[in-house]
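input
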Amino acid sequence: MRLTMRNYQDESDYPRIREFLRRVLSMNGYWERSWHVNRFDYWRWHGVMNMGHGKLETDVFIWETDQGDIAAVLNREAPGSVFLQVHPDFRTHELEETMVAVAGKHLTVPAANGKRRHHIWVEREDEPRQGILKHYGYTRTTKVEYQRRRDVRVEIEDVTVADGYTVRALGDAHELPARSWVSWRAFHPDEPDEAYQGYHWYHNIQRAPLYNRDLDIVAVAPGGEFAAFCTVWFDDVTRTGVFEPVGTAPEHQRRGLARAVMTEGLRRLKKLGAKYAYVGSWGEATHALYGKTMGFHEYLILEAWEKIA
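output
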């Protein structure tokens, strides 16, 4: 079947891509062989709008059938980090070769000695896509992402919250500074406080279509400050949820708070009728927390294949 490629054009493409990703997730047996709709939302509302990681009009490419149905989407995330989203009914060697070529032409970033670089993420067991990348001069790197999944419909274990701490949903707007600050402490523990740039970025998080304040979970310390958090994104079309992000301030770690907020998030997902929940892990600490402790035992492994030219 003939497919036509074009750039993302305007706001009308946004809901169409979201519905495409939902359809592909279902067709892939609820495995993240393409992005969950939340990841596209999160890149747009946080990556693009808060972090300056690209633009939809220049960094998203769409392949369509003659009837106007989306067959594939190519997009970046962080600088130089590229993902192929392909409808399983339209996946061919020719299409993926074309997508790889477009990535190499449009989605690279500067490297040393005047060269350009980028990497494409591919499932560890996806030999056909790896074969294409090898043929075009890509090499496997040590960058690995575990895309973890668990069934929400099974029993969710009870947890005991550390003495003096409480777990609840985020409150109204006056709590945004505290929510932003605990995120800074969790993800920038070695940076000086003077580098903190405030909480207004969180307004964009709350503008994302799947944001639900009742699923923005925090652990509150005895002194009233926020100690840990997780934001859960529930898609009522696919009946699936995503944990992104999860964190604990350094001074409150090793008290089981990440487990406590995630458990509350799982309970709330279950009440909403979710089937599956997803979370990504990158290192031994998060593998242990999400896999062993939180029951996200099932996973796919993505590897980054890089080209410098």
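quick obs: The longest strand covers residues 139-151.
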